[in-house]
Amino acid sequence: MIELNLNNLTNDFPLLNKLMALEEVVWFNPNVTTLDQGLPYVGLDEEDIHDASLRLQRFAPYLAKAFPETQLSNGIIESDLVDIPTMKTALEAYYQLPIKGRLMMKKDSHLPISGSIKARGGIYEVLTHAEKLAFEAGLLSESDDYSKLLEPEFREFFKQYSIAVGSTGNLGMSIGIMSAKLGFTVSVHMSADARAWKKNKLREHGVNVVEYEQDYGVAVEQGRKEAELDPSCFFIDDENSKTLFLGYSVAGERLKQQFAQQQIVVDEAHPLFVYLPCGVGGGPGGVAFGLKMAFGDHVHCLFAEPTHSPCMLLGVHTGLHDEIAVQDLGIDNLTAADGLAVGRASGFVGRAMERLLDGYYTLTDERMYQLLGQLNQAEAIKLEPSALAGMPGPIHVEHNTEYMTRLGIDDSTLSNSTHLVWATGGGMVPEQEMAMYLAKSSI
Fold first, then answer.
1. Phi, psi at 283, each rounded to 5°
2. Which domains are present in the chain?
3. What angle do CA 357, 363, 366 make, to 5 degrees?
4. Distances (CA, A) of 17 to 90, 93, 206
5. Percentage of the chain with pLDDT > 90?
6. Long-range contacts: 369-374, Cβ < 8 Å, 24+?
7. pLDDT, average across residues 128-156
8. What are the protein's UniProt keywords (predicted)?
9. Between the N and C ends of the chain, which has fewer C-beta atoms within 10 Å?
10. Burial of 229 from C-beta contacts in 10 A (0-12 / 13-18 / 19+)
């Protein structure tokens, strides 16, 4: 790691003073490029997404039988796309500002199996690893009906291998549930901010949960160390995994299909703005990559982070990426948004996607709770706090004149735009826990 001089940093990047004061900030990336210019830095392309999509299709017959909740979608793990017009009215009233475009929500919060966006990347990486092992052992080929994975011989085979991951909660849920179902021995290393109910649910599935009093970074590091001691253990690295990233990226082509079904146009005259809660960056980074590949330069992605954990904004804004952590600025990384409680961003995602992301903003825990209550009241949709991070995005976008001018978007174009809030978690939160969230929302 490089040696940081805080005085020099704050002189070079005055925005850091606001971050250190835990103020809500908005930063539109002046270095954003076209897809053609930014794509070479990602190191992945459309063919990689297509390969991931085909793999998920191969596993669909197995998933439909292993998880009955996926039967209606024939084993494809996908979420609903819904309008939230009453919430749009509530936001306009709160900010005393209009939102000219259409406001929608992508309910990854209610994805089957693990109830969060992590069901995309986490489950995909476990399936990819399982397929590789089964191929190498001569137990499976691409032309097979993958529902054969339910047979006892496969559980016995996978029992020889273990999987480990470090998590604040939701990634651990998706990897733990999927790995255990296949027969793997699985350990989830969970940081102090992980919710008790998530730990309990994993244990119910036979997952070994290792708890830490420290934050996400320590949980990941310890998980990695444990895996290194066991040659049969596969460590899933949320910070650097291109496989996880590709699992999330399939969301782009899926959303494009949903838009076509609902006759929603995305082009120069009908821009799409997408707001993604960001922790370490793998989930939102992968989704944003998939969206850029699906919609090109007509989609504009923004990341949202808690004021106490603005790791991706910090890394990209300074250009230091994973060489700087929020703790280096004296920021405590303590937030109710457990899925976003990350002090150091993924260097892979930051460097791969920095030219393709339009902006970043932060919001307080109090605001997330407030939005949680407003959404429940307006649309009867219940989310966990971190999943509300994307909700103020349309206000920041539409009322930043400099940003709109840079994009060449006027009021008439804005009226034709679609704002999409990506809801990332909450579908499996127990009623008692949700009642506590809602109680805090009215404080």
1. -65, -60
2. 6-114+243-440 (3.40.50.1100), 117-239 (3.40.50.1100)
3. 155
4. 31, 30, 46
5. 88
6. 369/336, 369/437, 369/440, 369/441, 369/443, 370/441, 371/441, 372/437, 372/438, 372/441, 373/438, 373/441, 373/442, 374/87, 374/90, 374/91, 374/94, 374/441
7. 98
8. Lyase, Pyridoxal phosphate
9. C
10. exposed
Rounded Cα gap, residues 224 and 296, in angstroms: 36
Residues 364 and 443: beta-carbon distance below 8 Å: no
Burial letters for 40-69: b for 16+ Cβ neighbours within 10 Å, e otherwise?
A: eebebeeebbeebbebbebbbbbbbebbee
Q: What are phi and psi of 423, to 5 degrees?
A: -80, 125
* Per-residue pLDDT band at 443 (split at 50, 70, 90): low
Would you say residue 2 has pLDDT above 70? no
Distance CA 221, CA 314 (A): 21
Q: Is the entire prediction scored with pTM above 0.90?
A: yes
Q: What is the pLDDT of residues 264-294, one digit of tens each?
A: 999 999 999 999 999 999 999 999 999 999 9
The terminus-to-terminus CA distance of the chain in angstroms comes to 42
CB 270 within 8 A of CB 230: no
* Each residue's pLDDT tens digit, 370-393: 999 999 999 999 999 999 999 999
> Residue type for 345, please?
A
